[in-house]
Amino acid sequence: MFKRRTPEAPPNPPQVVTPKPGGKGRPTPKRSEAEKRRRQPITAPATRKEAYKKVRERQADERQRARAGMARGDEKYLLKRDKGPVRRLARDYVDARRTVGSYLMYAMFAIVLLSLLPIPAAKLLVLFAPPLLLVVVFGEGLMLSRGVKKLAAERHPDEDTKGVGMYAAMRAMQIRRLRMPGPQVKIGEKDKV
Length: 193
Description:
The protein is mainly alpha-helical and about 190 residues long. It has 6 helices and no strands.
């Protein structure tokens, strides 16, 4: 009785749903459906022993990956002492040369074998060869150290070159196959250095 009706509008107008701009374009799922989708089976190990085994396997994989990366010379996996362009230069400088220091362990082993022989000349050689070898290796280390420092100062003037000479000398005394990170240049490739 007190309501006013406009004659143009029908008594029950049809409902038209238009999606909001920026809306998701689909109806909101029921809570039970959303919870079902979110739930995942628990993959935790059943026993503590299994958990430790999985952790050990994962750590072994990470160590293997790091070892392979270090052998390749990948900067990400290198130790702090091996990082940087100056240290890479020192490694390449040493690896491009044959050094007496890299054969020192083989020579010492041969000297020990000679000491077992009952020949007087071998006994005399065993007496004088080790100090002579050590003097040669020490002199070679000094020359390598001086060369690396000079080259690093020329090529990388803004980088810190502290300790690079000792780093090169110590690397020169290691057996080439056992050097870590592994050699990236072949012997004689001095043009790449």
